[in-house]
Amino acid sequence: MKLSVNQIQEYNNENIQTHQKEFDFLAEKLIKKGIDVAGIIEKLENFNVAIPSWALGAGGTRFGRFSYGGEPATLEDKIDDIGILNILTKSAGAISLHIPWDIPNDYNAIKEKASDHNIIFDSVNSNTFQDQLHSKHSYKFGSLCNIHKEIREQAIQHNFEVINIGEKLGSKSLTVWLSDGSNFPGQNNFQTVLNNTAESLKKIYRHMPNSWKLYIEYKPYEPNFYSTVIQDWGTSFMLAQECGERAYTLVDLGHHLPNTNIEQIVATLMNKGKLGGFHFNDSKYGDDDLTVGSVKPYALFLIFNELVYGMNTNKNNPVPAWMIDASHNIKDPLEDLLQSLEAILIAYAQALLIDQKQLEKNQYKNDVAICQEILQDAFRTDVRPLIRQARLNTNGALNPLEAFKIFKIRDYLIKERGLKSKASGL
Amino acid sequence: MKLSVNQIQEYNNENIQTHQKEFDFLAEKLIKKGIDVAGIIEKLENFNVAIPSWALGAGGTRFGRFSYGGEPATLEDKIDDIGILNILTKSAGAISLHIPWDIPNDYNAIKEKASDHNIIFDSVNSNTFQDQLHSKHSYKFGSLCNIHKEIREQAIQHNFEVINIGEKLGSKSLTVWLSDGSNFPGQNNFQTVLNNTAESLKKIYRHMPNSWKLYIEYKPYEPNFYSTVIQDWGTSFMLAQECGERAYTLVDLGHHLPNTNIEQIVATLMNKGKLGGFHFNDSKYGDDDLTVGSVKPYALFLIFNELVYGMNTNKNNPVPAWMIDASHNIKDPLEDLLQSLEAILIAYAQALLIDQKQLEKNQYKNDVAICQEILQDAFRTDVRPLIRQARLNTNGALNPLEAFKIFKIRDYLIKERGLKSKASGL
Amino acid sequence: MKLSVNQIQEYNNENIQTHQKEFDFLAEKLIKKGIDVAGIIEKLENFNVAIPSWALGAGGTRFGRFSYGGEPATLEDKIDDIGILNILTKSAGAISLHIPWDIPNDYNAIKEKASDHNIIFDSVNSNTFQDQLHSKHSYKFGSLCNIHKEIREQAIQHNFEVINIGEKLGSKSLTVWLSDGSNFPGQNNFQTVLNNTAESLKKIYRHMPNSWKLYIEYKPYEPNFYSTVIQDWGTSFMLAQECGERAYTLVDLGHHLPNTNIEQIVATLMNKGKLGGFHFNDSKYGDDDLTVGSVKPYALFLIFNELVYGMNTNKNNPVPAWMIDASHNIKDPLEDLLQSLEAILIAYAQALLIDQKQLEKNQYKNDVAICQEILQDAFRTDVRPLIRQARLNTNGALNPLEAFKIFKIRDYLIKERGLKSKASGL
Amino acid sequence: MKLSVNQIQEYNNENIQTHQKEFDFLAEKLIKKGIDVAGIIEKLENFNVAIPSWALGAGGTRFGRFSYGGEPATLEDKIDDIGILNILTKSAGAISLHIPWDIPNDYNAIKEKASDHNIIFDSVNSNTFQDQLHSKHSYKFGSLCNIHKEIREQAIQHNFEVINIGEKLGSKSLTVWLSDGSNFPGQNNFQTVLNNTAESLKKIYRHMPNSWKLYIEYKPYEPNFYSTVIQDWGTSFMLAQECGERAYTLVDLGHHLPNTNIEQIVATLMNKGKLGGFHFNDSKYGDDDLTVGSVKPYALFLIFNELVYGMNTNKNNPVPAWMIDASHNIKDPLEDLLQSLEAILIAYAQALLIDQKQLEKNQYKNDVAICQEILQDAFRTDVRPLIRQARLNTNGALNPLEAFKIFKIRDYLIKERGLKSKASGL
To answer: Between chains, do A25 and B29 touch, taking CB under 8 Å as contact?
Structure first.
């Protein structure tokens, strides 16, 4: 199914008056405070987050998986799903492919379909945490870190193949997440697996086209429960430095130990020009992969404060590759992603409201209470009218989730695809 | 120093027009959605949080303490400080005394002073985690749990004395926080110290006047770092049940292990009619005792959702005794408390906005996305105009922190009390 | 395949001299200190841990599963596997069935096979965290807690069926682990789901034969990542009290928030006579389900200290139902279980060495350093000769893991069952 | 008071026979397994841990401090206390001074006293986390990171002074622990404070004599509860690299977020030649500063495994500066330190038992169970006879804690110094 711009305009017309009133009131108030409302809205219009090809099906846990109807069974279906997200929100204009789950059969057809939806191909992701049918060696005991050279080589070759596929589609970067690690003390020699990983990454880095970037993800645990080779930002940063200029650290919000100050990590990496990618989700306990902003919206806002500051300040740091990396165990994945996109834009808009000059001035005066007030004033502002206006300007839906429900999109998808279609991937 | 109602009115007049415009806009919008705005404002007007007598001086850590000028050196000064908070916010109309730090010399004078500030005496707190000058036995190895009967007796007698003081002032409840525990495996016999604690608490409970309530606080660690006798809500609840009907559990937000779902504990306790007291603060790592709402405002909102729901639903549960229990290591304590009071009212107002009927209906339909939308719609609403209106109605200041700054209250206090006055307490 | 006693004796004969020398040396030393070595060995001989029917296949994570050869594909195979564990260790003489994964086809045949291996049927486990083929209602949004009565009823009926199966096999208890909970704030009404769960459990309790016990497990998170209805021991204890005398709390080592003092929970539950079951495993981050003793052996020892003390002191508390509940993602499950059984016996033996009288005396003197010395002296003792002696006395293998390797048991199993057999279950 | 070698020999003579029997039995067993027992004992004899000058008095928490008798009130007293530790254990032959708490009055006298006790001056520690009497600027809002240049300068000058004092005493390194950070979001600009800290550290580094090393400590939180500038090993490592070759990271066991894999951090730092210093203690919740090995002895062993491996493998990494950094809130500090020294030597001896070749071989075979067995066989061995033998060889006491008690050392110290002497420092 494909939504038309007309449908959306019709829906918007029902709500436009209320919106206009709320927007005008807020804009007036903000402009009076000296805030560049038009500039903020332009930034919101231009913000795009990639959707990973594996996030459109039902997620699960080791205890099982509850399916729902109308899952996208093919890469084509997945691109259509992202097309729905994008036409509603105008902020989901990119797909991040996971290989080998989503290797295109017909590259031209796939590129055309994506182009029809105004979707570009963002970073490609390799997978060496599972064994593939017909693969010679198993990654049970590690891939790029493996003590056995032939297994490392197989994993390196897989990354070469992923780069190759990405080139055909117009991707410009490779994301490497390694689950490599150990479940028990003694299983791995920490120094050996670290050295092996460094060597493997360097080979992959050297194989990339000159215009490409390498994003190195980190994670403290799961699926290994004693150690993970790239366990924290420090290890990723060290490896990125060893690889070269176009290697960067990728931050996934859920990949941290309890109580980690993630916004400080973001600031440090941007200070060094090494924040390459950013994966959004939310969590209460571990890598829970919940809807963005559903548990800790203030932490998300504080992170966006650092991102906004860094994008203005650290010119050597590229604009990070944004992606939503969540798991949809309970909710309809499309509804979940719509909520995530909304939460991201809200946090971004709030961060853009912060008066950085006043903040700096009060930091200089050590007026801690006022510094907090400045941040919280931005966070407490109801910025939803700004986001709606940005969407209105770009022909998106005023309230995408509401539109999704009113248009009964899931019902259409079930009709098209049936109740038992199943997405490839996890 | 004492603020006058006139001063505050003058300050309000400067800002009244902007406020009125914002309030009218918000009220209209909410009323259109069927929300009882007047009812919410009435609830906000009636909400009062106790200020503990020990929270008005500079706090510190084991690594030291940085003082500031104009600290309240006497109980009289402390009541004056709370008077300032109360006249500005109209929501700090109670003091919670800590004995022996703040034993009144002249009860009538103290009561009169409090009454002048419209301040009542809330729950009284005993202290058996420190040794007092001239006390016979040390609490180094525990108080109510102590393996030595004479030490337990001394601690019980101290609680009797605290009740006695409270009665003279009009308090109606006793709060017992025990640091009792151990630093090393083997130091305590868990079963013995638990049984001792139960016996001691029962004696204290039986000594209380019939109109009094007993609040039993819990905490997982600090100042003991291996075990704490009352380590969690389950232990407190069990002990409260053993004591009797007027014994309750007291929840302090900072007293939980990482990632604890506190709102669920609140719901469980209210379901059983056993939530007696509630201590506000915020934290990122442990019992950090930071300004309320400064780190996890959404968690605070979710807790208030349960509190509001419980106050409506669980008629057998008394209205909890609210108190701010924070430590002011860096900020001016009065500024810190003003920010805390604001954050509490914001979370309360947001929780009052939740459409409980719609929520229940969508829970019944398992529409998880809409359930989340209902909560987040309330949270994302900028409720500050409602709080300002409630304060306006009761002659408080529109923006208490701003007023505090404009009136240069700290400067006056330094002039009055000097730069080196020091509060009793921690 | 089935091991013979002769094979084991032959293996033991190779190592008996070294063992005898080490045992004699240790026994002499311990007896000199006044320790009842014979009594300890008798206790070790009598200690039996149940093996769950689902733990004999390869485990996995949401990221995948790596299989190995010779997995037990039927309940008969599983009982044979436990038979191997039991003849080697003489401490694995029980199986805990998981329904519906392991419903017997022929009850008599199954009972006979178990009896041949000297294996009894321990607690039976219900499963309402997954949907079963042909079941009418889904547990996606909860089972015993579900807001919809018909779904609760289906889950209750399933528990009735599990009891029925257990009765036929000679089981005497039902273990209920509920994954019921929510992934997002607002999804559940905490009070409603708690009340529903209480009502459902009471119905199950009342349906049990009078000789049966009910074990209520708790867990803070996973597979739900915002809330779990029975999130901690306090909730389980409260529910067990509401059900009745034969309802108990079950402690699983991995089901706790970071840094929880589990040994204190054990002591509290035994003090109240409410510790019913105990699941062994180990973990570093969450419910990692690693080999017992592989990460935190000292914590295991401290827990055994409380178990030993409680079994001596709290006569109203039944002997807990012991079970290993781990996941074998990387290791051969049989090797993993042999290591777990060894670690359990080591911790048990060390705990039995503790001089409780000296400990109590030094607790009374507040000699914290000596209290610690008493525990650590027991822990630092190499008790392996005691365990070997206990096994020798009962015709088990001196070193079960070594014997397993020497006998090439896995090779035989692969020959028998093939490389691609797959266990039912997770 | 000063212990004599004769006293100790007399005490040893009482226990020598039992020891000799146990040692011979163990040595024979180990030698049969191919272990170089003599080599291990030599390593144990040569192992020395520095005692910090601030760890000899009673520690406390923000809730108070319980004193004990005979505290060392002067630097001379403190050196005497370490002298007692050293003559008993022969492994405490170094003191680490904390400035300004322990500035010598008479350098020659102090050096002579230390020399009498065979104590050398290890790394010197600066303190910019507290304000000193008469200091011009306050560190309330940071020291080396401070936004105000004059405050940074004061802190830098203080470090210069500490280096100067260290040079006079023969120290060869400076340890910098910064509490610098913030309590609230917005208080600090992360990038600014990081840059300031880097500049300040570089100035200090350049000021050091060429033979000196700089150790940069990290810590996630406390005394600041929102952010700490040097929050983790990654930040410390990055700063050390920016400073130069003789700048290193210092690991303190208690300075990590919950569940951190510390042994992997140790391995990574040694791999890069950047592990400079190591502070021992133990903890269950946060920076609890408990007796070494009292809570997680297996984790300590795993760390020592990496240290032993690194000292053999990473020749570019210097031997780390060992120090005990604990707080003695409940125990007699000298007893506490004796227990810590014992736990350190036990973990070291166990790590030395590991058969690295067998481990590597089984890692290559992916025999995870056997890898675990190799580590646990070493850990389960009762190595205390080896440690006693090492002490016997160097005229130390067989069991230092027992000797301390038998000699009634605390009683003598109380007689000498009185009940109310108080150590400088925290």
So the answer is: no
